[in-house]
Amino acid sequence: ALTIGIVGLPNVGKSTLFNALTKNQVLAANYPFATIEPNVGVVNLPDPRLATLAGIFGSERILPAAVSFVDIAGIVRGASEGEGLGNKFLANIREADAIAQVVRGFDDSDVVHVDGKVDPKSDMETINTELILADLETLERAIPRFEKEIKGKKLDPSVLAAAIEARDELQKGTPLSAASVDLEPIAELGLLTAKPFIYVFNVDEAVLTDDAKKAELAALVAPAEAVFLDAKIESELIDLDPEDAAELLASTGQTESGLDQLARIGFDTLGLQTYLTAGPKESRAWTIHKGWKAPAAAGVIHTDFERGFIKAEVISFADLVETGSVAEARAKGKARMEGKDYVMQDGDVVEFRFNV
Ligand code: GDP
């Protein structure tokens, strides 16, 4: 599944948010370094279409797409130099597809701030600097190794060239996502600043309902996406039944929980989308990249589906709802037979035909 690594300074609310993510009680305590074990939590990508499909097909169960989150320890200034928890922990997010940075926006004199004051801009700079330094360290270690391997003709020189270019950008203080370096040759290094970033502002209720303040914070991180949530409310929401949860959200001016937003924006940021399959057993969402063609999409279900792909019967979700059944959609010409060059659209309801 899509994996998002959570980073942030100590005491910004990562554990609290993560508790909500996993419904498990991981340690959330009011002191730095409470969260030293990496944890993984999986949340479902909310998709109301699945319940509709399950109604139409009489499905026994619903299987939404999933987003997994990796919680790592807080980063402190100097983390990349081995002070605090350091690089060992950053290693846990090397394999993440994206990074969510939790930024403290709540005021609470009972909760210690590691730098003594609540200052989102300065906090983000601290984290981003540490990530740049961590990437520099990774490259400084990789470059001599690459040089040796090229001498032994075991490596393509383009790998070294990319590494040197990336190092030079980082030395100027530029995160790799903002540099015009082709990172493909050094993808295996999992450089952190090359990953897509989402900013999660953990704020008080007062900020949640203050559009001007939110716009101000969002502007600090644009063009990256900003999610606003109150981690404490998120952890309360998980214990409520759907009606009470909706009521609590509404009382804070929200229509969607922060975790749902995070899953949705994570999908978007990574250029992912879902297509749907449905039958009496299950209604299910499958994760693919935008722009994928039908055979690749079929391959997500089973490699045999891709290898033996013949065609796909596709009905758009809207057409299926309008016609009310597959038979009716076919009768009205709304079921299309698509071949191997068909580019999948979000919410396509699909049945693949294939040879085994
Ligand atoms: P972490 O070090 O980033 O994992 O931070 P924690 O999740 O352990 O939170 C540190 C402290 O801040 C805990 O005492 C939390 O209860 C508190 N906290 C977390 N989120 C909020 C919030 O939105 N508002 C307030 N007032 N306190 C919070």
Automatic annotation (TrEMBL):
<comment type="function">
    <text>ATPase that binds to both the 70S ribosome and the 50S ribosomal subunit in a nucleotide-independent manner.</text>
</comment>
<dbReference type="InterPro" id="IPR004095">
    <property type="entry name" value="TGS"/>
</dbReference>
<dbReference type="InterPro" id="IPR031167">
    <property type="entry name" value="G_OBG"/>
</dbReference>
<dbReference type="InterPro" id="IPR027417">
    <property type="entry name" value="P-loop_NTPase"/>
</dbReference>
<dbReference type="GO" id="GO:0016887">
    <property type="term" value="F:ATP hydrolysis activity"/>
</dbReference>
<dbReference type="GO" id="GO:0043023">
    <property type="term" value="F:ribosomal large subunit binding"/>
</dbReference>
<dbReference type="GO" id="GO:0005525">
    <property type="term" value="F:GTP binding"/>
</dbReference>
<feature type="domain" description="OBG-type G">
    <location>
        <begin position="2"/>
        <end position="249"/>
    </location>
</feature>
<dbReference type="Pfam" id="PF01926">
    <property type="entry name" value="MMR_HSR1"/>
</dbReference>
<dbReference type="InterPro" id="IPR012675">
    <property type="entry name" value="Beta-grasp_dom_sf"/>
</dbReference>
<dbReference type="InterPro" id="IPR023192">
    <property type="entry name" value="TGS-like_dom_sf"/>
</dbReference>
<keyword id="KW-0460">Magnesium</keyword>
<dbReference type="InterPro" id="IPR012676">
    <property type="entry name" value="TGS-like"/>
</dbReference>
<dbReference type="GO" id="GO:0005524">
    <property type="term" value="F:ATP binding"/>
</dbReference>
<keyword id="KW-0547">Nucleotide-binding</keyword>
<dbReference type="InterPro" id="IPR013029">
    <property type="entry name" value="YchF_C"/>
</dbReference>
<dbReference type="GO" id="GO:0005737">
    <property type="term" value="C:cytoplasm"/>
</dbReference>
<keyword id="KW-0067">ATP-binding</keyword>
<dbReference type="InterPro" id="IPR041706">
    <property type="entry name" value="YchF_N"/>
</dbReference>
<comment type="similarity">
    <text>Belongs to the TRAFAC class OBG-HflX-like GTPase superfamily. OBG GTPase family. YchF/OLA1 subfamily.</text>
</comment>
<dbReference type="InterPro" id="IPR004396">
    <property type="entry name" value="ATPase_YchF/OLA1"/>
</dbReference>
<dbReference type="Pfam" id="PF06071">
    <property type="entry name" value="YchF-GTPase_C"/>
</dbReference>
<protein>
    <recommendedName>
        <fullName>Ribosome-binding ATPase YchF</fullName>
    </recommendedName>
</protein>
<dbReference type="InterPro" id="IPR006073">
    <property type="entry name" value="GTP-bd"/>
</dbReference>
<keyword id="KW-0479">Metal-binding</keyword>
<feature type="binding site">
    <location>
        <begin position="11"/>
        <end position="16"/>
    </location>
    <ligand>
        <name>ATP</name>
    </ligand>
</feature>
<feature type="domain" description="TGS">
    <location>
        <begin position="271"/>
        <end position="354"/>
    </location>
</feature>
<dbReference type="GO" id="GO:0046872">
    <property type="term" value="F:metal ion binding"/>
</dbReference>
